[in-house]
Amino acid sequence: MTTHAPRATQSVTLPATLDAAVAALTAMPAAVPVAGGTDLMAAVNRGQLRPAGLVGLGRVNEIRGWQYQDGHALLGAGLTHARMGRPDFAALIPALAAAARAAGPPQIRNAGTLGGNIVTGAPTGDALPVLAALEADLVVAGPGGTRELPVSHLLTGRELLGPAELVGFVRVPLLHAPQVFLKATGRTGPGRATASVAVVLDPARRGVRCAVGAIAPMPLRPLDAEHWIASLIDWDGDRGLAPEALTAFGEYVAAACVPDPPGDEQLPPAVLHLRRTVAALARRALGRALS
Ligand SMILES: Cc1cc2nc3c(=O)[nH]c(=O)nc-3n(C[C@H](O)[C@H](O)[C@H](O)COP(=O)(O)OP(=O)(O)OC[C@H]3O[C@@H](n4cnc5c(N)ncnc54)[C@H](O)[C@@H]3O)c2cc1C
């Protein structure tokens, strides 16, 4: 039997602009982009990935901050979780800041980025349900220029990014209204989500948007529950809801996202627990958003 030694990474390029990063990936099709490296290097260390080259994004300053644009925030893909967790960012997009503060231990939050979270697309990616509820768009840079796509398109897998394409920015509507992200973990302290819920109020459209993360390959939107609860809110008044309505919303969301098994089978205990967790997260998240 012939064994092959794993191929070592051949080259590391550190471009200073997004265009130069795209050019480096175009010139070296076998290379992969790396931002904070928290997901990518873990895959390398597990022996799952042996990239022939790396294009580091850490020096691309244009994607490390954000700017305002037509009622939206244009967030650089290189924003770290630590940066998004700070108060000035939290005042802008509170749910994304809450998700960033919950994304792993401090050393991970210092290095891990928004773009890496999106492109990895792990079910437990904390930014993902928030971006789904916000109906964010991605600005993708590639050899043919830039294109935009809804974030929900990318959450199904990396292959939607073409060769040498990079996520440059995330365009998020600024709603100027309460929004909440809550996450349940299997243990105390930082940990991956067993379930998470983002709730966003959109008073201009008299809408409530909700996304449930970590329980399916991509975030789930319980659209019927969103429409039903939005119709009960007095948008011109105090926006309060009776506790029974909050409880019913939680159960509606949970039933939509954690469906019954086929036939008359009883819910297995693990499914019942997950449904209760999702119901509690959704009820609390909406209650906090409306309080
Ligand atoms: C111990 C530990 C705990 C963690 N806990 C959490 C947690 O609680 N919640 C959570 O959400 N995540 C968690 N993570 C996962 C990880 O930290 C995040 O997903 C992080 O946001 C990834 O960002 P990164 O910059 O490190 O990505 P990288 O590892 O650099 O890249 C990840 C993938 O994205 C690609 N990529 C990166 N940037 C771009 C770009 N701009 N355009 C195109 N492709 C790009 C890379 O090629 C690679 O495929 C944890 C990780 C570890 C190791």
UniProtKB/TrEMBL annotation:
The keyword Flavoprotein applies. Pfam families: FAD_binding_5. SUPFAM superfamilies: CO dehydrogenase flavoprotein C-terminal domain-like (SSF55447), FAD-binding/transporter-associated domain-like (SSF56176). PROSITE patterns: FAD_PCMH (PS51387). Residues 4-177 form the FAD-binding PCMH-type domain. It comes from the Bacteria. The keyword Isomerase does not apply. PANTHER family: XANTHINE DEHYDROGENASE SUBUNIT C-RELATED. This is FAD binding domain-containing protein. It comes from Streptomyces pyxinae. The lineage of its organism: Bacteria, Bacillati, Actinomycetota, Actinomycetes, Kitasatosporales.
